[in-house]
Amino acid sequence: MSTPLYQLKAEFFKTLGHPARIRILELLSERDHSVSELLPEVGIEAAHLSQQLAVLRRSNLVVSRKEGSTVHYSLTTPLVADLLDMARQILTEMLSGQAEMLHDLQAAHAPLRAASSRS
């Protein structure tokens, strides 16, 4: 029996569920990077970066190619960059809604503060 699509999606999102992996994918969305370029940008130890890249390779989100002694990584599809951009848009919209709610709460509280300061 084949794996249900919702389960495959859950596994896919689990793969994306690590901040270092998201940062790696963001950087690779801009251009291909070598491991030495990724290290300072991701801000984790080399061994940990290697583990995270291995997870992304196994999930077929990134591919590697060797040029001499340097290993370069790239996205397997530009759709990954599109997904990250969509996530940014969703978060922006959600946070914008929260900012509006905060503004409304502060505005509703302002008359109460003014009345209590006059007492």
Automatic annotation (TrEMBL):
CDD domains per the UniProt record, alphabetical: HTH_ARSR (cd00090)
Domain HTH arsR-type: residue ranges: 1-95
InterPro entries for the chain: ArsR-like_HTH, HTH_ArsR_DNA-bd_dom, Metal_resp_trans_reg, WH-like_DNA-bd_sf, WH_DNA-bd_sf
Keyword Signal: no
GO molecular function annotation: DNA binding; DNA-binding transcription factor activity
Keywords assigned by UniProt, alphabetized: DNA-binding, Transcription, Transcription regulation
Segments crossing the lipid bilayer: none
Family matches, as NCBIfam families: HTH_metalloreg
Protein name: ArsR family transcriptional regulator
